[in-house]
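Hey, I'm writing a tutorial for new members on how sequence and structure tokens pair up, and I'd like a real worked example in the thread rather than a made-up one. If someone can provide the structure for the chain below, I'll link this post from the tutorial.
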Amino acid sequence: MSTPTSTLKSCIPFPLEEDQLVEVVEKAKDWAIMHGAAMRSKQDFNPDALQFAPFILTPSSFPRVEFQKAVNLQPVLNELIHTVAHDSAFLFDTLKSTVKVDDFTRSLIEIYRTVLDEGITQTVTLALLRSDYLPNFSDAIKQVEINTIASSFGGISTNMTPMHSYILTELGYRDKLVNLPENKALSGLCDAMVEAWKLQNRPDAAILFVVEDVTYNICDQRFHEFYIRSTYPHVPVVRRTLTEIQRAGRLGTERELLLALKEGEPAVEVSVVYFRAGYEPGHYHGADEWAARLLVERSRAIKCPSIQYHLAGTKKVQQALARPDVLRRFVGADEAKIDAIRDVFTGLYSLDPDEGGAEAVALAKANPERFVLKPQREGGGNNVYGADIPTALDAMTPDERSAWILMERIFPPLSTGYMIRPGGPTPPPLVQLVSELGIFGAVIGTKDKILYNKQVGHMLRTKLSTANEGGVAAGLGALDSPYLID
């Protein structure tokens, strides 16, 4: 089957002359490292060394109208996901078939049931969301997914626009800078964390970053920490793994979360918990890490995300929301909002036998190139594409299929550019690319009242047009920024 594609006009004429290209790439690599658009190497890990994160040399074109549409829609999506996250009956019902076959989702649900039965100690939640979009061949954006936990690259993405401004200036295209939208993702995400911290009114309490055992995407995380410490020096920030939280954490008499940072010293209270880990099974080595997650959930700390928000980000919930009756349940009678949300949704199908799963399987097998098969996982690198779908479906029992969803594949327009990767060829070849836009949102509230709701910034991830997955942390995509075109 031939896939429809269009091509977006590049922001500057290509190819660049070789001498100029080699020189500007060298400058760009140094700029990236010196401004923290960098990561630790997975292949050659050294805690004392950074290498630049893969990036696209010049900003990639993105339709201006669609960019603005995504920005305007984010507060509406924040509100939608907030309402979904606080509807326990809907979450349990939507995930009931998934928990039979997916141990990870089942463990999350068990924690949710436990805290619901006990009575939720902290009714205020903080969510830092990222809604990801691809333009389709007609250039209209379609939502790929919405992330409710560890929505990354707000820190580094904030540096991509200044980096591209520098590169375009070096290449003699300073006049193009007006088409690079301002990006304040880092400050927007951090300000929301501090807003949650202020709500707690516990001036000695800290914000806790829950992190992996080894953090490769270190700059992105540390930028949040450093921004908070420089802008709000009175707000302490601590970083701990789930294992360390289990070892040093406990609940106080008022269910405050207390963390012993050093032996023999009084424990520090934590009033906001920001999860940058805990979104995939590999972060839980055993019972200790699950006990740590439950400890945090039971506490009076504001969680980002709370367990119910984590569940609201599962693919199964996303697929359920694509049904008009379900969307109406959460958005109410506001037809303009319903239309705006439905406009960015692509076809999503349940594989659950009780929800027309057999028809969806037949659809996927008849035309696999039109679809993507997605499991309940964050972190990239888990999806099944095209010709591999029938084999994957045949290898699953009907129950196992219900833990996956089928999504219509989006065929984005192509752009042209230079992808710069550590250890890549010099000079880099001119390649065909596709870009995915992420819009960050921040929302704070209780079940009945939203206290804070903002769109706070964006990111652009770009991959080779031949690559299925595009995660930068997973090693397949590259950081970018949008160049808005009409």
